[in-house]
Design goal:
The chain is an all-alpha fold and 572 residues long. The N terminus is likely disordered. 79% of the residues lie in helices and 0% in strands. The chain starts with a helix and ends in a 6-residue tail after the last helix. Among the domains are: 83 residues, Serine Threonine Protein Phosphatase 5, Tetratricopeptide repeat (Alpha Horseshoe), CATH 1.25.40.10; 50 residues, no CATH class. Keywords: Signal, TPR repeat.
Protein backbone atom coordinates (compact mmCIF):
# COMPACT_ATOMS: atom_id res chain seq x y z
CA UNK A 1 0.00 0.00 0.00
CA UNK A 2 2.84 2.38 0.89
CA UNK A 3 4.60 1.65 -2.41
CA UNK A 4 1.39 2.40 -4.27
CA UNK A 5 0.99 5.73 -2.44
CA UNK A 6 4.58 6.72 -3.09
CA UNK A 7 4.13 5.81 -6.72
CA UNK A 8 1.05 8.00 -6.86
CA UNK A 9 3.01 10.78 -5.22
CA UNK A 10 5.82 10.50 -7.73
CA UNK A 11 3.46 10.37 -10.69
CA UNK A 12 1.68 13.47 -9.44
CA UNK A 13 4.90 15.32 -8.88
CA UNK A 14 6.12 14.40 -12.35
CA UNK A 15 2.87 15.54 -13.91
CA UNK A 16 3.22 18.84 -12.10
CA UNK A 17 6.85 19.18 -13.10
CA UNK A 18 6.14 18.54 -16.77
CA UNK A 19 3.34 21.08 -16.73
CA UNK A 20 5.47 23.62 -14.92
CA UNK A 21 8.38 23.18 -17.30
CA UNK A 22 6.17 23.77 -20.27
CA UNK A 23 4.68 26.89 -18.81
CA UNK A 24 8.04 28.04 -17.47
CA UNK A 25 9.54 27.93 -20.92
CA UNK A 26 6.95 30.46 -22.01
CA UNK A 27 7.25 32.95 -19.14
CA UNK A 28 10.93 33.15 -18.32
CA UNK A 29 13.16 32.66 -15.30
CA UNK A 30 11.01 34.59 -12.83
CA UNK A 31 8.11 32.39 -13.66
CA UNK A 32 10.29 29.31 -13.21
CA UNK A 33 10.94 30.43 -9.65
CA UNK A 34 7.23 30.73 -9.04
CA UNK A 35 6.68 27.30 -10.52
CA UNK A 36 9.25 25.77 -8.21
CA UNK A 37 7.38 27.34 -5.31
CA UNK A 38 4.13 25.88 -6.64
CA UNK A 39 5.86 22.52 -7.00
CA UNK A 40 7.02 22.76 -3.37
CA UNK A 41 3.47 23.35 -2.12
CA UNK A 42 2.20 20.50 -4.26
CA UNK A 43 4.89 18.12 -2.94
CA UNK A 44 4.13 19.04 0.65
CA UNK A 45 0.41 18.71 0.02
CA UNK A 46 0.96 15.26 -1.45
CA UNK A 47 2.80 14.19 1.70
CA UNK A 48 -0.12 15.22 3.89
CA UNK A 49 -2.52 13.57 1.46
CA UNK A 50 -0.66 10.29 1.88
CA UNK A 51 -0.87 10.71 5.66
CA UNK A 52 -4.64 11.29 5.26
CA UNK A 53 -4.40 14.77 6.74
CA UNK A 54 -6.66 16.13 4.05
CA UNK A 55 -7.29 19.57 5.55
CA UNK A 56 -3.56 20.46 5.48
CA UNK A 57 -3.17 18.86 2.05
CA UNK A 58 -6.04 20.97 0.73
CA UNK A 59 -4.47 24.22 2.01
CA UNK A 60 -1.14 23.37 0.36
CA UNK A 61 -2.73 22.31 -2.92
CA UNK A 62 -4.69 25.55 -2.96
CA UNK A 63 -1.47 27.55 -2.46
CA UNK A 64 0.06 25.71 -5.38
CA UNK A 65 -3.02 26.53 -7.45
CA UNK A 66 -2.85 30.21 -6.45
CA UNK A 67 0.53 30.38 -8.14
CA UNK A 68 -0.35 28.21 -11.16
CA UNK A 69 -4.05 27.83 -11.86
CA UNK A 70 -3.49 25.82 -15.03
CA UNK A 71 -2.16 22.62 -13.44
CA UNK A 72 -4.70 19.85 -14.05
CA UNK A 73 -3.13 17.51 -11.51
CA UNK A 74 -3.68 19.94 -8.63
CA UNK A 75 -7.36 20.29 -9.54
CA UNK A 76 -7.55 16.50 -9.66
CA UNK A 77 -6.08 16.15 -6.16
CA UNK A 78 -8.38 18.82 -4.75
CA UNK A 79 -11.33 17.06 -6.37
CA UNK A 80 -10.27 13.81 -4.69
CA UNK A 81 -10.15 15.48 -1.28
CA UNK A 82 -13.59 17.05 -1.66
CA UNK A 83 -14.98 13.70 -2.85
CA UNK A 84 -13.60 11.97 0.22
CA UNK A 85 -15.28 14.60 2.38
CA UNK A 86 -18.58 14.15 0.53
CA UNK A 87 -18.48 17.75 -0.74
CA UNK A 88 -19.48 16.46 -4.12
CA UNK A 89 -20.29 19.71 -5.94
CA UNK A 90 -16.88 21.17 -5.09
CA UNK A 91 -15.31 17.85 -6.02
CA UNK A 92 -17.08 17.91 -9.39
CA UNK A 93 -16.03 21.48 -10.18
CA UNK A 94 -12.36 20.66 -9.61
CA UNK A 95 -12.49 17.32 -11.39
CA UNK A 96 -14.14 18.89 -14.45
CA UNK A 97 -11.49 21.65 -14.45
CA UNK A 98 -8.78 18.99 -14.40
CA UNK A 99 -10.40 17.24 -17.35
CA UNK A 100 -10.78 20.52 -19.19
CA UNK A 101 -7.07 21.21 -18.84
CA UNK A 102 -6.02 17.66 -19.70
CA UNK A 103 -8.41 15.30 -21.47
CA UNK A 104 -5.82 12.56 -22.03
CA UNK A 105 -5.57 11.31 -18.41
CA UNK A 106 -7.94 8.41 -17.75
CA UNK A 107 -7.93 8.98 -13.99
CA UNK A 108 -9.51 12.40 -14.48
CA UNK A 109 -12.40 10.78 -16.36
CA UNK A 110 -12.78 8.12 -13.70
CA UNK A 111 -12.96 10.71 -10.90
CA UNK A 112 -15.57 12.75 -12.78
CA UNK A 113 -17.65 9.65 -13.52
CA UNK A 114 -17.43 8.49 -9.92
CA UNK A 115 -18.62 11.86 -8.61
CA UNK A 116 -21.52 11.93 -11.06
CA UNK A 117 -22.45 8.42 -9.91
CA UNK A 118 -22.42 9.48 -6.26
CA UNK A 119 -24.61 12.45 -7.15
CA UNK A 120 -27.05 10.08 -8.86
CA UNK A 121 -26.48 11.68 -12.23
CA UNK A 122 -26.13 8.41 -14.11
CA UNK A 123 -26.52 9.86 -17.62
CA UNK A 124 -23.55 12.22 -17.06
CA UNK A 125 -21.53 9.40 -15.50
CA UNK A 126 -22.25 7.20 -18.51
CA UNK A 127 -21.32 10.01 -20.92
CA UNK A 128 -18.00 10.42 -19.10
CA UNK A 129 -17.16 6.75 -19.42
CA UNK A 130 -18.14 6.84 -23.11
CA UNK A 131 -15.71 9.73 -23.68
CA UNK A 132 -12.97 7.88 -21.77
CA UNK A 133 -13.34 4.71 -23.81
CA UNK A 134 -13.53 6.62 -27.12
CA UNK A 135 -10.55 8.88 -26.47
CA UNK A 136 -8.06 6.71 -24.61
CA UNK A 137 -6.74 3.37 -25.75
CA UNK A 138 -6.82 0.21 -23.62
CA UNK A 139 -9.68 1.38 -21.43
CA UNK A 140 -12.13 -1.39 -22.38
CA UNK A 141 -12.13 -2.53 -18.76
CA UNK A 142 -14.40 0.43 -18.00
CA UNK A 143 -17.09 -1.03 -20.21
CA UNK A 144 -18.20 -2.92 -17.11
CA UNK A 145 -18.81 0.36 -15.27
CA UNK A 146 -20.58 1.79 -18.28
CA UNK A 147 -22.88 -1.23 -18.58
CA UNK A 148 -23.74 -0.99 -14.89
CA UNK A 149 -24.71 2.65 -15.33
CA UNK A 150 -26.95 1.74 -18.26
CA UNK A 151 -28.65 -0.83 -16.07
CA UNK A 152 -29.30 1.78 -13.35
CA UNK A 153 -31.06 3.84 -16.01
CA UNK A 154 -32.91 0.82 -17.43
CA UNK A 155 -31.23 1.42 -20.77
CA UNK A 156 -31.23 -2.29 -21.44
CA UNK A 157 -30.38 -2.16 -25.16
CA UNK A 158 -27.34 0.02 -24.42
CA UNK A 159 -26.32 -2.34 -21.62
CA UNK A 160 -26.55 -5.35 -23.92
CA UNK A 161 -24.54 -3.54 -26.60
CA UNK A 162 -21.89 -2.67 -24.03
CA UNK A 163 -21.67 -6.23 -22.76
CA UNK A 164 -21.27 -7.37 -26.38
CA UNK A 165 -18.28 -5.03 -26.67
CA UNK A 166 -16.85 -6.55 -23.50
CA UNK A 167 -17.21 -10.02 -24.99
CA UNK A 168 -15.50 -8.83 -28.16
CA UNK A 169 -12.55 -7.63 -26.11
CA UNK A 170 -12.34 -10.37 -23.48
CA UNK A 171 -14.31 -13.32 -24.83
CA UNK A 172 -17.36 -15.12 -23.46
CA UNK A 173 -17.44 -15.21 -19.66
CA UNK A 174 -19.78 -16.37 -16.93
CA UNK A 175 -20.20 -12.88 -15.46
CA UNK A 176 -21.17 -11.22 -18.74
CA UNK A 177 -23.45 -14.03 -19.86
CA UNK A 178 -25.35 -14.05 -16.59
CA UNK A 179 -25.76 -10.28 -16.71
CA UNK A 180 -27.13 -10.45 -20.25
CA UNK A 181 -29.44 -13.31 -19.28
CA UNK A 182 -30.70 -11.28 -16.34
CA UNK A 183 -31.57 -8.41 -18.67
CA UNK A 184 -33.29 -10.66 -21.20
CA UNK A 185 -35.32 -12.39 -18.52
CA UNK A 186 -36.30 -9.07 -16.98
CA UNK A 187 -37.50 -7.88 -20.38
CA UNK A 188 -39.36 -11.16 -21.12
CA UNK A 189 -36.97 -12.30 -23.84
CA UNK A 190 -36.58 -15.90 -22.72
CA UNK A 191 -35.26 -17.24 -26.02
CA UNK A 192 -32.44 -14.70 -26.08
CA UNK A 193 -31.57 -15.54 -22.46
CA UNK A 194 -31.41 -19.22 -23.34
CA UNK A 195 -29.29 -18.49 -26.41
CA UNK A 196 -26.75 -16.71 -24.21
CA UNK A 197 -26.67 -19.73 -21.92
CA UNK A 198 -26.22 -22.06 -24.89
CA UNK A 199 -23.23 -20.06 -26.15
CA UNK A 200 -21.64 -20.18 -22.70
CA UNK A 201 -22.10 -23.96 -22.48
CA UNK A 202 -20.61 -24.38 -25.96
CA UNK A 203 -17.61 -22.30 -24.91
CA UNK A 204 -17.15 -24.31 -21.69
CA UNK A 205 -18.73 -27.73 -22.33
CA UNK A 206 -17.26 -29.33 -19.19
CA UNK A 207 -18.52 -26.71 -16.72
CA UNK A 208 -21.42 -28.24 -14.80
CA UNK A 209 -22.54 -25.01 -13.14
CA UNK A 210 -23.35 -23.43 -16.53
CA UNK A 211 -25.57 -26.38 -17.44
CA UNK A 212 -27.30 -26.18 -14.07
CA UNK A 213 -27.94 -22.44 -14.52
CA UNK A 214 -29.48 -23.09 -17.92
CA UNK A 215 -31.63 -25.89 -16.50
CA UNK A 216 -32.82 -23.64 -13.68
CA UNK A 217 -33.93 -20.99 -16.17
CA UNK A 218 -35.81 -23.63 -18.13
CA UNK A 219 -37.48 -25.01 -14.99
CA UNK A 220 -38.49 -21.60 -13.71
CA UNK A 221 -40.24 -21.02 -17.03
CA UNK A 222 -42.15 -24.32 -16.96
CA UNK A 223 -39.94 -26.05 -19.49
CA UNK A 224 -39.07 -29.06 -17.34
CA UNK A 225 -38.87 -31.41 -20.33
CA UNK A 226 -36.20 -29.23 -21.96
CA UNK A 227 -34.30 -28.99 -18.68
CA UNK A 228 -34.44 -32.76 -18.30
CA UNK A 229 -33.16 -33.28 -21.84
CA UNK A 230 -30.32 -30.79 -21.29
CA UNK A 231 -29.19 -32.52 -18.10
CA UNK A 232 -29.44 -35.98 -19.64
CA UNK A 233 -27.29 -34.90 -22.61
CA UNK A 234 -24.70 -33.40 -20.30
CA UNK A 235 -24.54 -36.45 -18.02
CA UNK A 236 -24.27 -38.79 -21.00
CA UNK A 237 -20.87 -37.23 -21.71
CA UNK A 238 -19.89 -36.35 -18.13
CA UNK A 239 -20.81 -39.32 -15.97
CA UNK A 240 -18.29 -38.68 -13.19
CA UNK A 241 -17.97 -35.85 -10.73
CA UNK A 242 -21.22 -34.08 -11.59
CA UNK A 243 -23.56 -35.00 -8.78
CA UNK A 244 -25.33 -31.63 -8.63
CA UNK A 245 -26.78 -31.94 -12.13
CA UNK A 246 -27.73 -35.54 -11.37
CA UNK A 247 -29.62 -34.43 -8.28
CA UNK A 248 -31.59 -31.88 -10.30
CA UNK A 249 -32.34 -34.48 -12.95
CA UNK A 250 -33.54 -36.87 -10.23
CA UNK A 251 -35.86 -34.19 -8.85
CA UNK A 252 -37.31 -33.56 -12.31
CA UNK A 253 -37.95 -37.27 -12.73
CA UNK A 254 -39.51 -37.50 -9.28
CA UNK A 255 -41.90 -34.66 -10.07
CA UNK A 256 -42.97 -36.38 -13.28
CA UNK A 257 -43.69 -39.63 -11.42
CA UNK A 258 -40.57 -41.53 -12.54
CA UNK A 259 -39.70 -42.52 -8.99
CA UNK A 260 -37.62 -45.59 -9.83
CA UNK A 261 -35.59 -43.69 -12.41
CA UNK A 262 -35.18 -40.80 -9.94
CA UNK A 263 -33.92 -43.25 -7.31
CA UNK A 264 -31.40 -44.62 -9.81
CA UNK A 265 -30.05 -41.11 -10.45
CA UNK A 266 -29.91 -40.38 -6.75
CA UNK A 267 -28.00 -43.56 -6.00
CA UNK A 268 -25.42 -42.58 -8.61
CA UNK A 269 -25.14 -39.12 -7.06
CA UNK A 270 -24.85 -40.56 -3.55
CA UNK A 271 -22.04 -42.83 -4.74
CA UNK A 272 -20.04 -39.84 -5.97
CA UNK A 273 -17.06 -39.21 -3.65
CA UNK A 274 -17.46 -35.44 -4.19
CA UNK A 275 -20.93 -35.58 -2.62
CA UNK A 276 -20.05 -35.53 1.07
CA UNK A 277 -22.00 -37.09 3.90
CA UNK A 278 -23.22 -33.75 5.28
CA UNK A 279 -24.86 -32.74 2.01
CA UNK A 280 -26.45 -36.17 1.61
CA UNK A 281 -27.90 -35.91 5.11
CA UNK A 282 -29.18 -32.39 4.39
CA UNK A 283 -30.97 -33.60 1.26
CA UNK A 284 -32.56 -36.49 3.15
CA UNK A 285 -33.70 -34.04 5.82
CA UNK A 286 -35.41 -31.99 3.10
CA UNK A 287 -37.11 -35.14 1.82
CA UNK A 288 -38.25 -36.00 5.34
CA UNK A 289 -39.86 -32.58 5.70
CA UNK A 290 -41.51 -32.43 2.28
CA UNK A 291 -42.30 -35.87 0.85
CA UNK A 292 -45.42 -37.90 1.60
CA UNK A 293 -44.99 -41.25 3.34
CA UNK A 294 -45.28 -43.35 0.18
CA UNK A 295 -42.46 -41.44 -1.53
CA UNK A 296 -40.37 -41.58 1.62
CA UNK A 297 -40.64 -45.36 1.49
CA UNK A 298 -39.84 -45.55 -2.23
CA UNK A 299 -37.16 -42.90 -2.44
CA UNK A 300 -35.75 -41.74 0.87
CA UNK A 301 -35.46 -45.01 2.80
CA UNK A 302 -33.18 -46.72 0.25
CA UNK A 303 -31.00 -43.60 0.21
CA UNK A 304 -30.92 -43.50 3.99
CA UNK A 305 -29.73 -47.09 4.01
CA UNK A 306 -27.10 -46.23 1.40
CA UNK A 307 -25.82 -43.31 3.48
CA UNK A 308 -25.51 -45.49 6.58
CA UNK A 309 -23.71 -48.21 4.61
CA UNK A 310 -21.38 -45.68 2.98
CA UNK A 311 -20.73 -43.62 6.12
CA UNK A 312 -21.15 -46.06 9.03
CA UNK A 313 -19.03 -43.93 11.35
CA UNK A 314 -21.08 -40.74 10.90
CA UNK A 315 -23.60 -40.36 13.72
CA UNK A 316 -25.85 -38.02 11.75
CA UNK A 317 -26.20 -40.63 9.01
CA UNK A 318 -27.78 -43.04 11.49
CA UNK A 319 -29.91 -40.23 12.93
CA UNK A 320 -31.42 -39.15 9.60
CA UNK A 321 -32.04 -42.77 8.66
CA UNK A 322 -33.72 -43.26 12.04
CA UNK A 323 -35.85 -40.18 11.45
CA UNK A 324 -37.00 -41.52 8.09
CA UNK A 325 -37.79 -44.94 9.53
CA UNK A 326 -39.75 -43.38 12.37
CA UNK A 327 -41.73 -41.21 9.96
CA UNK A 328 -42.87 -44.24 7.94
CA UNK A 329 -43.79 -46.16 11.10
CA UNK A 330 -40.81 -48.54 11.37
CA UNK A 331 -40.29 -47.80 15.05
CA UNK A 332 -38.10 -50.77 15.92
CA UNK A 333 -35.63 -50.11 13.11
CA UNK A 334 -35.67 -46.39 13.86
CA UNK A 335 -34.80 -47.07 17.49
CA UNK A 336 -31.88 -49.28 16.44
CA UNK A 337 -30.46 -46.52 14.22
CA UNK A 338 -30.70 -43.98 17.02
CA UNK A 339 -28.94 -46.36 19.39
CA UNK A 340 -26.21 -46.91 16.78
CA UNK A 341 -25.69 -43.15 16.54
CA UNK A 342 -25.17 -42.82 20.30
CA UNK A 343 -22.34 -45.33 20.14
CA UNK A 344 -20.56 -42.98 17.73
CA UNK A 345 -21.54 -39.70 19.37
CA UNK A 346 -23.57 -39.80 22.61
CA UNK A 347 -23.83 -35.99 22.94
CA UNK A 348 -27.18 -35.43 21.19
CA UNK A 349 -29.93 -35.33 23.82
CA UNK A 350 -32.67 -35.30 21.18
CA UNK A 351 -31.53 -38.72 20.03
CA UNK A 352 -31.77 -40.09 23.56
CA UNK A 353 -35.27 -38.67 23.82
CA UNK A 354 -36.21 -40.37 20.56
CA UNK A 355 -34.84 -43.68 21.82
CA UNK A 356 -36.76 -43.44 25.08
CA UNK A 357 -39.99 -42.38 23.42
CA UNK A 358 -39.77 -45.28 20.98
CA UNK A 359 -39.20 -47.69 23.85
CA UNK A 360 -42.40 -46.34 25.41
CA UNK A 361 -44.20 -46.70 22.10
CA UNK A 362 -43.01 -50.31 21.82
CA UNK A 363 -43.94 -50.95 25.47
CA UNK A 364 -40.32 -51.74 26.32
CA UNK A 365 -40.48 -50.16 29.74
CA UNK A 366 -37.37 -51.86 31.13
CA UNK A 367 -35.45 -50.43 28.17
CA UNK A 368 -36.80 -46.98 28.97
CA UNK A 369 -35.29 -47.27 32.43
CA UNK A 370 -32.01 -48.62 31.05
CA UNK A 371 -31.51 -45.92 28.43
CA UNK A 372 -32.79 -43.08 30.58
CA UNK A 373 -30.29 -44.11 33.28
CA UNK A 374 -27.48 -43.88 30.71
CA UNK A 375 -28.76 -40.57 29.40
CA UNK A 376 -28.95 -39.14 32.91
CA UNK A 377 -25.26 -39.87 33.40
CA UNK A 378 -24.55 -37.76 30.33
CA UNK A 379 -27.17 -35.07 30.97
CA UNK A 380 -27.76 -34.95 34.74
CA UNK A 381 -29.45 -31.53 34.55
CA UNK A 382 -32.16 -32.43 32.02
CA UNK A 383 -35.50 -32.60 33.77
CA UNK A 384 -37.25 -34.38 30.91
CA UNK A 385 -34.97 -37.41 31.32
CA UNK A 386 -35.98 -37.71 34.98
CA UNK A 387 -39.59 -37.55 33.85
CA UNK A 388 -39.12 -40.50 31.48
CA UNK A 389 -37.21 -42.44 34.10
CA UNK A 390 -39.77 -41.74 36.79
CA UNK A 391 -42.71 -42.63 34.54
CA UNK A 392 -41.09 -45.94 33.55
CA UNK A 393 -40.26 -46.87 37.12
CA UNK A 394 -43.80 -46.01 38.18
CA UNK A 395 -45.19 -48.22 35.42
CA UNK A 396 -42.94 -51.07 36.53
CA UNK A 397 -44.01 -50.74 40.15
CA UNK A 398 -40.67 -49.32 41.29
CA UNK A 399 -42.43 -46.64 43.26
CA UNK A 400 -39.55 -45.54 45.49
CA UNK A 401 -37.25 -45.19 42.46
CA UNK A 402 -40.02 -43.33 40.67
CA UNK A 403 -40.41 -40.85 43.52
CA UNK A 404 -36.66 -40.22 43.60
CA UNK A 405 -36.41 -39.50 39.87
CA UNK A 406 -39.57 -37.43 39.76
CA UNK A 407 -38.54 -35.26 42.69
CA UNK A 408 -35.09 -34.73 41.14
CA UNK A 409 -36.63 -33.73 37.84
CA UNK A 410 -39.19 -31.51 39.52
CA UNK A 411 -36.43 -29.49 41.19
CA UNK A 412 -34.74 -28.96 37.85
CA UNK A 413 -37.92 -27.91 36.05
CA UNK A 414 -39.24 -25.05 38.12
CA UNK A 415 -39.23 -22.70 35.12
CA UNK A 416 -41.14 -25.11 32.87
CA UNK A 417 -44.64 -25.02 34.31
CA UNK A 418 -46.07 -27.58 31.92
CA UNK A 419 -43.36 -30.15 32.70
CA UNK A 420 -43.65 -29.30 36.39
CA UNK A 421 -47.35 -30.15 36.24
CA UNK A 422 -46.45 -33.46 34.60
CA UNK A 423 -44.09 -34.29 37.45
CA UNK A 424 -46.79 -33.49 40.00
CA UNK A 425 -49.29 -35.69 38.19
CA UNK A 426 -46.95 -38.69 38.35
CA UNK A 427 -45.91 -37.94 41.91
CA UNK A 428 -49.56 -38.05 42.90
CA UNK A 429 -49.68 -41.66 41.65
CA UNK A 430 -46.30 -42.63 43.09
CA UNK A 431 -46.89 -41.21 46.57
CA UNK A 432 -50.30 -42.85 46.69
CA UNK A 433 -48.70 -46.21 45.89
CA UNK A 434 -46.27 -45.91 48.81
CA UNK A 435 -49.11 -44.71 51.04
CA UNK A 436 -47.82 -41.17 51.54
CA UNK A 437 -51.32 -39.87 50.95
CA UNK A 438 -50.77 -36.30 52.08
CA UNK A 439 -47.95 -35.84 49.58
CA UNK A 440 -50.05 -37.57 46.93
CA UNK A 441 -52.95 -35.16 47.41
CA UNK A 442 -50.60 -32.18 47.44
CA UNK A 443 -49.03 -33.28 44.17
CA UNK A 444 -52.43 -33.77 42.51
CA UNK A 445 -53.61 -30.38 43.72
CA UNK A 446 -50.46 -28.73 42.35
CA UNK A 447 -51.00 -30.40 38.99
CA UNK A 448 -54.62 -29.20 38.92
CA UNK A 449 -53.60 -25.68 39.86
CA UNK A 450 -51.74 -25.52 36.54
CA UNK A 451 -54.36 -27.39 34.52
CA UNK A 452 -57.76 -27.74 36.25
CA UNK A 453 -59.09 -29.75 33.29
CA UNK A 454 -56.43 -32.46 33.26
CA UNK A 455 -58.68 -35.48 32.88
CA UNK A 456 -56.01 -38.03 33.73
CA UNK A 457 -55.15 -36.30 37.01
CA UNK A 458 -58.82 -35.82 37.89
CA UNK A 459 -59.50 -39.47 37.18
CA UNK A 460 -56.57 -40.86 39.16
CA UNK A 461 -57.09 -38.49 42.06
CA UNK A 462 -60.78 -39.37 42.34
CA UNK A 463 -60.09 -43.10 42.00
CA UNK A 464 -57.50 -43.15 44.77
CA UNK A 465 -59.74 -41.07 47.04
CA UNK A 466 -62.44 -43.70 46.47
CA UNK A 467 -60.03 -46.56 47.19
CA UNK A 468 -59.02 -44.79 50.41
CA UNK A 469 -62.66 -43.92 51.15
CA UNK A 470 -61.73 -40.27 51.64
CA UNK A 471 -63.38 -37.03 50.50
CA UNK A 472 -65.88 -38.94 48.37
CA UNK A 473 -67.98 -35.93 47.44
CA UNK A 474 -64.91 -34.31 45.93
CA UNK A 475 -64.02 -37.56 44.19
CA UNK A 476 -67.51 -37.82 42.69
CA UNK A 477 -67.46 -34.24 41.48
CA UNK A 478 -64.06 -34.65 39.80
CA UNK A 479 -64.94 -37.98 38.22
CA UNK A 480 -68.26 -36.65 36.91
CA UNK A 481 -66.44 -33.77 35.19
CA UNK A 482 -64.18 -36.28 33.46
CA UNK A 483 -66.92 -38.53 32.06
CA UNK A 484 -68.96 -35.55 30.95
CA UNK A 485 -66.04 -34.70 28.67
CA UNK A 486 -65.19 -38.34 27.85
CA UNK A 487 -68.48 -40.25 27.82
CA UNK A 488 -67.08 -43.28 25.97
CA UNK A 489 -63.81 -43.76 27.85
CA UNK A 490 -64.23 -47.07 29.72
CA UNK A 491 -61.39 -46.35 32.17
CA UNK A 492 -62.98 -43.09 33.25
CA UNK A 493 -66.42 -44.71 33.41
CA UNK A 494 -65.00 -47.46 35.64
CA UNK A 495 -63.55 -44.84 37.99
CA UNK A 496 -66.87 -43.01 38.21
CA UNK A 497 -68.68 -46.29 38.85
CA UNK A 498 -66.23 -47.13 41.61
CA UNK A 499 -66.65 -43.73 43.27
CA UNK A 500 -70.42 -44.26 43.22
CA UNK A 501 -69.91 -47.77 44.57
CA UNK A 502 -67.83 -46.42 47.46
CA UNK A 503 -70.60 -43.92 48.21
CA UNK A 504 -73.01 -46.87 48.21
CA UNK A 505 -74.84 -45.59 45.15
CA UNK A 506 -74.95 -49.12 43.75
CA UNK A 507 -77.77 -48.71 41.25
CA UNK A 508 -76.11 -45.68 39.66
CA UNK A 509 -72.79 -47.49 39.71
CA UNK A 510 -74.39 -50.48 37.94
CA UNK A 511 -75.72 -48.30 35.10
CA UNK A 512 -72.34 -46.67 34.58
CA UNK A 513 -70.52 -50.01 34.62
CA UNK A 514 -72.97 -51.55 32.15
CA UNK A 515 -72.42 -48.62 29.83
CA UNK A 516 -68.66 -49.22 29.96
CA UNK A 517 -69.10 -52.92 29.13
CA UNK A 518 -71.49 -52.08 26.32
CA UNK A 519 -68.90 -49.73 24.78
CA UNK A 520 -66.34 -52.55 24.76
CA UNK A 521 -62.60 -52.77 25.28
CA UNK A 522 -62.97 -53.50 28.98
CA UNK A 523 -60.44 -55.50 30.99
CA UNK A 524 -60.58 -58.03 33.83
CA UNK A 525 -60.70 -55.37 36.52
CA UNK A 526 -63.85 -53.87 34.98
CA UNK A 527 -65.72 -57.20 35.07
CA UNK A 528 -64.54 -57.73 38.64
CA UNK A 529 -65.84 -54.32 39.65
CA UNK A 530 -69.13 -55.04 37.91
CA UNK A 531 -69.39 -58.28 39.88
CA UNK A 532 -68.70 -56.40 43.13
CA UNK A 533 -71.49 -53.93 42.34
CA UNK A 534 -73.94 -56.72 41.52
CA UNK A 535 -73.08 -58.47 44.79
CA UNK A 536 -73.90 -55.31 46.71
CA UNK A 537 -77.25 -55.24 44.94
CA UNK A 538 -77.91 -58.82 46.10
CA UNK A 539 -77.41 -60.35 42.66
CA UNK A 540 -74.98 -63.03 43.83
CA UNK A 541 -75.32 -65.42 40.88
CA UNK A 542 -74.78 -62.61 38.41
CA UNK A 543 -71.85 -61.34 40.47
CA UNK A 544 -70.16 -64.76 40.38
CA UNK A 545 -70.60 -64.90 36.60
CA UNK A 546 -68.82 -61.56 36.21
CA UNK A 547 -66.03 -62.68 38.53
CA UNK A 548 -65.56 -65.78 36.40
CA UNK A 549 -65.23 -63.64 33.30
CA UNK A 550 -62.62 -61.56 35.11
CA UNK A 551 -60.71 -64.70 36.11
CA UNK A 552 -60.71 -65.91 32.52
CA UNK A 553 -59.12 -62.66 31.45
CA UNK A 554 -56.65 -62.48 34.37
CA UNK A 555 -56.19 -65.76 36.28
CA UNK A 556 -53.80 -64.09 38.74
CA UNK A 557 -56.17 -61.38 39.89
CA UNK A 558 -55.98 -61.00 43.67
CA UNK A 559 -58.88 -62.57 45.67
CA UNK A 560 -60.77 -63.58 42.51
CA UNK A 561 -60.61 -67.33 43.22
CA UNK A 562 -61.74 -66.76 46.81
CA UNK A 563 -64.70 -64.65 45.66
CA UNK A 564 -65.84 -67.33 43.23
CA UNK A 565 -65.32 -70.24 45.59
CA UNK A 566 -67.06 -68.62 48.57
CA UNK A 567 -69.62 -66.68 46.47
CA UNK A 568 -68.79 -63.79 48.68
CA UNK A 569 -67.30 -60.33 48.24
CA UNK A 570 -63.83 -59.81 49.66
CA UNK A 571 -62.36 -56.33 49.46
CA UNK A 572 -58.70 -55.42 49.58
Amino acid sequence: MLKQLLYSFCVGACLLLISNQAIGQKKGKNWETKLREAEFYFTEGEKYYILEDYSKALVLFQKSLDINDENATVYFKIGQIYAKGSELQKALENALRALELNDSNKYFYILVADIYTQLGNFPKAADTYEQLIDKIENTEIYLFELAALYLYQQRYDDAIATYNKVEKSYGISEEITFQKQKIYLQTNQLDLALEEGRKLIEAYPDEESFVIKQAEILMSNKREADAKSLLEDFLANHSNGNHQSRLILAELKRRSGEVESALSELKKAFSNPNFNAGNKIQLLAQYRASLPVNELKQLALPLGKLVVDTHPDVADAHIIYGDLLQQVGESENAKNQYVASTKIDPSNISVWQNIIQLHFELNEVDSVIYHSDIALELFPNQGILYYYNGAANLQQGNDEDAVFSLEQGKRLSSSNLSLLSGFNALLGDAYNNIKEYKKSDEAYEAALDFDPNNDLVLNNYSYFLAIRNQDLDKAEKMSKLVIDRNPTNVTYLDTYAWVLYTKEKYKEAKKVMEKAIEIGGVEAIHYEHYGDILYKLGKVDEAVEQWKIAKGMDPNAELIDKKIADRKLYEK
